[in-house]
Design a protein that fits this description.
heterotrimer, A alpha+beta (about 160), B alpha+beta (about 290), C alpha+beta (about 775), A: about 160 residues, alpha+beta, about 35% helix, about 15% strand, B: Uridine Diphospho-n-acetylenolpyruvylglucosamine Reductase, domain 3, five-stranded antiparallel sheet
Chain lengths: ~160, ~290, ~775
């Protein structure tokens, strides 16, 4: 397989890499660039553990080949934190006990962040739609929804 | 193991040239939400290919635009774009409703109309509404351009009439007048991220309490999604207050069995297609009143 | 009782690393010079392996080693019965059996190499139904055994003939359940490093039970236990599921690591995980119940058959819990229960949250509602006439006299909160339209911890550092449930220091005390007691030191807010200052706490004894809407009342309830590993459906606290009780809505419409 040059911005930093055609964005992030906060759970776009923000939209990074997304911008869970300051969603997940095993957490946070970036004032149904593709086996989702809603409410009061 | 090279044409002409020169053994890649699953699964449906051609950057295949008599939907339009399009919400709310039920937010952000139609799954959620809307697909090759009814484009489960040198560029959906009512139903095993166990799209023109025109298409009930023509004929010119639902239910089930034959799932699907049509009709009638 | 840390919703001690993506799970680890392993699975569920040719694979550039069963020093392991093959030797017994394993420079090469291994099989006709397997002339799954029976647990009490004679009504019903996949979102991962320090192999990864895996790997390698080190990494969920399958993977990787003298990484993808890993047992159950017309149960006769699949795994203990709990929390004078496990060529079955209880609860709680209908009694009234209360005698003859038997309390609270009585009456009436609502409930009692399965003890080591921080070494392990937080809270409570000053060290067999497995909802109860003991021992040492050095009376010394106080509550010094001084003076401030559970007993012949030293009680109410046109069920609301003794961390307890309820809904209406003659058809999350956020109803958790004399601060168990009731409550709600009684799980679309399961095989 011939390698293809790709330029990617991940968490606000530029990377120039050469990838094989069948290298998934998930592989690039985890194995090449060491963003291991992106998780692999099913490899077929069903569980959402590998969710990243790609050019502003939440996508499953297992469903994208890296060569497809040349010049794109990617945000992973690592990029939610800026200069050591946690994203309000991360704080809320801590405060609302929205985490158990934590394996779905990075994808869940990313889906919620993508939603709030597009719609800072979502209702509960919109929150559910944003995370319907993120499976969680531990929490029953309840504390996750509450955590996301708490951030929305804070935004409202500001 | 699958070995392939990748290509990323910059415009439609380049793509058409690639398709022409290489002839077979090329696989087009758009949103990837079906293709990458098939590659992962080494699916039997995946024919041998040695070139993967990514078309996601072809702007010619993007955009939703109102033309004189129809709505043009670029084949690279994502399901999310359909859900968020005001134009579609206004003209074809049924499409929006169906698109909303496809996969998850992540899938809808990547998956495209062209991909959904080309994959030709019997359960595809966009296919049934587009069949009743009489949608057409535009297929282009280097030298040729043709337009096909969606129902003609779909030749079997996971099979289409797309030629090796062609690409689907757009979808044309004829506008319908305001006397038409739309309804979409989907039965699923869970409430989100679920493949349709059965789906149903109905459009009906109702004037003075009479059904003057109706189109009904079921997905996942027959080998490929298709219209239930006998039921349409039966319903045509019936008054909306004189419908014999028990008869409609029976006839719908019979029509399904006639097309599909008896399968392991027939005892379930036969009554349910009828129940669904009844529900769709009742919802439409409620809207009329 | 006033607490500083316990009984408070303190934040999880592991949460920062989890929300920032810093938490390292098995697949996130890498070692220098590491190789990637891949496993070739059998092509058939049951087949003779006639020849394996690995030559082509070995010749592929980048392949370092290929192993088959011949390379495994001891090819059989198991916690209870050692009959699980590391790699299939003469025969593959189920579709997830490995045949060969490869180690290569890259993942891709390892995968390619797998495809180059040529295996000659002779496909055999397998046995896929435990009822068939039970027959006298059934062919044997294991050639060296006399029959296919894994285990039989009998329980006899009173005289059922007499009991049935005294009954006005006798009901006979059959119920069944399906294979269930744990569906931890993190697929299994292990990394084995050879010859690190003095360990022959060091195993890292998603190991639920490090000591079980240590045992298995040592057995397989024929190595001493002290040469096999297992270190647990963050667990992306387990629910009972990362035990034997991980041991098997660790054993394969260990053999490869020793062959190549390089670290080996073996990570499953989802398909491999679902194919290879054990499942929750499907049960086929026959219940016969006799009652007077007033609703007093006189006799129960129960036969439950569990499909053990290819290996024994945990079947002997899973079916044992079933035999103890099969009658439900009801006083029955005359009982005859038999539970069995049989080998088949299906995927093997083992521990999964619930562990033999969800199956029998589904049967017994459906049966109670059926009985209520036949007797024309209200389901609550019928239950109240029969449920356990203080001093009740259980089916095995145990007198429940050492803790509060709070069944009536949990029932009453759940019924009230869910408005059960009114809704039950309302929904029973015929309504127009396709969508019918219903409400149903289920109750349970559950033995805490291991019971008579095994020795039940756990240890904790606490080490006070010279800066006043505290290291906690535990033999029980975090699976995601929140054990680390609970243990740190208990240590902080006892020593009166901030919880963040306690650091839970990862479980490492090198130093952690072997405490058995983190299973059976025993971590808070057994391990929590051990933390308390270790802390109390540490306090004792501190007091001894202060008493001697500062002429204080030991009984007047107190620890509070990080300081040490003496006579008349005068502040002597901070804990930190004391730690520095003690260290300089050679006072050793490391202690251990070892907790052994109270006595229990069991007679295998008769099923008599006190199988568990305490119990928890729960009641869940489900409210559903059934679409009778399509078969879809929407669960609208679940009310869950659970007596936990004492909630060490109420927010965590709620988290357990929400998660358990969600799993119960999945079990009730959608989850099923579809198998066809041993082949698994649902191998990923597109086919094996678990609840999404949109499938979750309104949840109403009710935490009931009756402190138990045997628990730390009175705390008992919550993990498993939350999952075992949902399916039964939903089935009863569906009946309330539709008058249709469905006796097999899951209650899927087809069963609602057609009344029976439909499947491709036509069965």
């Amino acid at each position: 397989m011939d390698k293809i040059s790709v330029e990617l911005t991940v968490n606000r930093k530029k990377y120039k890499i050469k990838v094989e055609p069948d290298e998934r964005l998930l592989d690039t992030l985890r194995e090449r660039l060491n963003f291991t906060g992106v998780k692999e759970g099913c490899s077929i776009g069903e569980c959402g553990a590998c969710t990243v923000i790609l050019d502003g939209k939440a996508v499953n990074s297992c469903m994208v080949y890296t060569f497809q997304v040349d010049s794109s911008e990617v945000i992973t869970v690592k990029g939610l934190e800026i200069d050591g300051k946690l994203d309000p969603l991360q704080r809320a997940f801590i405060d609302y006990q929205a985490v158990q095993c934590g394996f779905c957490t990075p994808g869940m946070l990313i889906s919620a962040r993508a939603l709030l970036n597009q719609n800072p004032n979502p209702n509960r149904e919109e929150i559910k739609t944003a995370i319907e593709g993120n499976l969680c086996r531990c929490t029953g989702y309840k504390q996750i929804i509450k955590a996301i809603e708490s951030v929305v409410k804070k935004d409202r009061s500001e | 193991m699958l070995e392939f090279e990748a290509k990323k044409p910059e415009n439609l002409n380049q793509l058409l040239e690639i398709l022409e020169s290489k002839k077979s053994k090329i696989k087009l890649l758009a949103g990837g939400t079906d293709l990458l699953v098939e590659i992962h699964n080494k699916s039997d449906r995946l024919k041998d290919f040695d070139y993967l051609v990514d078309i996601t950057s072809l702007n010619e295949l993007k955009g939703i635009e109102a033309k004189d008599k129809y709505l043009k939907v670029g084949s690279l339009t994502t399901h999310s774009e359909i859900v968020n399009s005001d134009l579609i919400g206004q003209e074809f709310p049924i499409l929006k409703k169906a698109a909303k039920t496809i996969g998850s937010t992540q899938i809808r952000n990547r998956g495209t109309v062209g991909g959904n139609l080309s994959n030709a799954s019997p359960a595809a959620d966009l296919i049934t509404p587009l069949i009743v809307l009489d949608g057409r697909v535009v297929l282009k090759s280097n030298k040729n351009k043709r337009e096909l009814r969606l129902s003609d484009f779909l030749t079997g489960p996971y099979q289409t009439d797309l030629k090796d040198n062609e690409v689907m560029t757009e979808l044309k959906i004829p506008f319908v007048d305001s006397n038409y009512y739309f309804n979409f139903q989907k039965v699923k095993r869970r409430k989100a991220v679920a493949i349709a166990r059965i789906n149903l799209a109905v459009i009906a023109k109702i004037k003075d309490q009479i059904i003057t025109d109706i189109k009904i298409a079921f997905g996942s009930a027959t080998p490929t999604a298709r219209r239930f023509v006998k039921m349409e004929e039966y319903l045509k010119n019936k008054g909306i207050n004189q419908l014999d639902y028990d008869l409609i239910k029976d006839k719908t089930g019979d029509e399904m069995v006639k097309i599909t034959g008896t399968r392991w799932s027939t005892p379930y699907k036969k009554p349910v297609v009828g129940n669904l049509l009844k529900r769709a009709l009742q919802e439409i009638i409620k809207e009329v009143q | 009782m006033e607490f500083t840390h316990v009984n408070k919703s303190e934040k999880r001690v592991d949460v920062y690393e989890k929300v920032t993506g810093r938490a390292k799970y098995g697949a996130d680890l890498n070692f220098a010079n590491m190789l990637y392993a891949s496993v070739l699975y059998t092509a058939y569920p049951y087949a003779k392996i006639k020849k394996i040719d690995t030559q082509k694979a070995k010749k592929l550039p980048g392949v370092v080693s290929v192993i088959t069963a011949k390379d495994i020093p001891n090819n059989q392991f198991g916690v209870i019965i050692e009959n699980q093959q590391v790699l299939a030797n003469k025969k593959a017994l189920y579709i997830g059996d490995g045949v060969a394993a490869v180690a290569a420079e890259t993942k891709k090469i390892a995968k390619q190499a797998i495809e180059l291994i040529e295996v000659e099989y002779e496909e055999l006709k397998g046995i896929y139904d435990p009822i068939e397997a039970a027959k006298d002339d059934a062919q044997l799954v294991h050639d060296d055994l006399e029959n296919n029976q894994v285990v039989h647990h009998p329980l006899r009490k009173g005289d059922i003939e007499k009991g049935f004679k005294q009954s006005d009504l006798i009901l006979k019903r059959e119920y069944s359940t399906s294979f269930i996949e744990h569906s931890y979102i993190e697929p299994e991962a292990v990394i084995v490093v050879p010859y690190q320090e003095n360990s022959t192999v060091t195993v890292y990864g998603s190991v639920q039970n490090p000591f079980a895996t240590q045992n298995a790997v040592a057995t397989v390698l024929k190595e001493d236990l002290n040469k096999v080190r297992v270190v647990q990494n963050q667990m992306g969920g387990s629910f009972g599921g990362k035990d034997e399958v991980i041991s098997s993977m660790a054993a394969r990787a260990s053999v490869l690591a020793l062959k190549t003298e390089r670290p080996i990484k073996l990570v499953n993808n989802r398909e491999q995980s679902i194919k290879e890993s054990y499942k929750r047992h499907p049960y086929k159950m026959k219940y016969k119940i006799g009652a007077t017309k007033e609703g007093k149960i006189k006799a129960m006769e129960i036969k439950a058959i569990a499909d053990s699949g290819a290996y024994a795994c945990q079947t002997p203990f899973v079916t044992w819990r079933s035999v103890v709990q099969a009658t439900g929390p009801y006083e029955v004078e005359n009982v005859k229960t038999d539970t069995y496990g049989y080998y088949t060529n299906n995927v093997y079955t083992g521990a999964m949250r619930g562990y033999g209880s969800p199956q029998v609860i589904f049967a017994q709680e459906s049966l109670m509602d059926e009985l209520a209908v036949e007797l024309d009694l209200d389901p609550i009234e019928l239950r109240l006439k029969n449920i356990y209360h203080n001093n009740s005698i259980t089916a095995s003859g145990q007198k429940l006299d050492n803790h509060e038997v709070s069944l009536k309390e949990v029932m009453t609270k759940a019924i009230k909160k869910s408005d059960f009585t009114e809704k039950y009456r309302k929904y029973k009436k015929e309504v127009k339209g396709d969508k019918k609502r219903g409400i149903g409930l289920a109750v349970s009692f559950r033995g805490c911890s291991l019971g008579a399965e095994a020795i039940d003890a756990a240890g904790i080591i606490l080490s006070l550092k010279k800066d006043g921080s505290l290291s906690l070494y535990s033999g029980l392990a975090e699976n995601g449930q929140g054990l680390k937080t609970v243990y740190c809270q208990i240590a902080a409570e006892e020593l009166q220091i901030p919880t963040e000053k306690v650091n839970f060290m990862e479980v490492d067999t090198l130093i952690s005390p072997d405490s058995g497995s983190t299973v059976a909802s025993r971590a808070t109860l057994i391990g929590g007691n051990a933390v308390k003991k270790a802390a109390d021992n540490l306090i004792d040492k501190i007091k001894d030191y202060i008493a001697e050095q500062y002429q204080q009376k030991k009984e007047e010394i107190k620890l509070k807010d990080g300081f040490i106080y003496g006579k008349k509550d005068i502040k002597i010094m901070s804990l930190k200052e004391m730690a520095v001084k003690a260290a300089m003076e050679g006072v050793y401030l490391t202690t251990y706490g070892w907790y052994v559970s109270p006595d229990i007993s069991w007679d295998e012949e008769t099923g008599h004894g006190n199988p568990y030293f305490t119990y928890v009680y729960g009641c869940q109410v489900a409210e559903v809407e059934v679409d009778t046109a399509t078969g879809e069920i929407e669960v609208l609301k679940m009310t869950a009342a659970h007596d936990v003794g004492r909630a060490i961390n109420p927010a965590n307890v709620k988290g357990q309830i929400y998660g358990g309820v969600s799993m119960g809904i999945g079990y009730g209406i959608m989850e099923e590993v579809v198998t066809n003659e041993g082949y698994i058809e649902s191998t990923n999350f597109d086919q094996y459906l678990i609840p999404t956020v949109k499938d979750m109803p309104k949840l109403e958790p009710i935490i009931v606290q009756n402190p138990d004399p045997s628990g730390p601060y009175g705390a008992k168990s919550i993990g498993e009780p939350t999952l075992e009731l949902g399916a039964a409550a939903i089935a009863n709600a569906v009946f309330n809505a539709t008058d249709k009684r469905i006796r097999s799980l899951p209650l899927n679309l087809e069963k609602i419409i057609v009344g029976k399961n439909l499947s491709k095989g036509g069965k």
